[in-house]
Design a protein that fits this description.
By secondary structure, this protein is mostly helical. The chain is built from three helices and two strands; from the N terminus they run αααββ. The chain is 44% helix and 7% strand. Bound molecules: zinc ion. This is Zinc ribbon domain-containing protein.
């Protein structure tokens, strides 16, 4: 196998693998398992994309103390009930 084919294989399996693993990490799931699933089957990237974490993931998702909803870390208030984010 030549160098360019080798690069193609890395891109073909590596990109969805890394993406799936990273998304799993931001959602509190096992990045290794999801990375290995996503590499040969890129639709797992879509599945993990739509997964909501069940707990707070510092830097990525907050859990609302009022309604228990999980919303993106960068928002200043809960997107479900509007309670303001407590600044830690
Ligand atoms: Zn809320």
């Amino acid at each position: 196998m030549g160098f360019s084919e080798y690069l193609f294989v890395i891109a073909f399996f590596g990109v969805p693998g890394v993406l799936g693993g990273w998304l799993a990490h931001t959602r509190g799931k096992n990045p290794l398992v999801w990375g290995l699933l996503s590499a040969p089957f890129p639709f797992f990237v879509l599945i993990i994309w739509f997964q909501k974490p069940t707990a707070e993931i510092p830097g990525y998702f907050r859990k609302c103390p009022s309604c228990g909803g999980v919303y993106p870390w960068k928002l200043n208030a809960c997107k479900y009930c509007g309670v303001e984010t407590e600044q830690k």
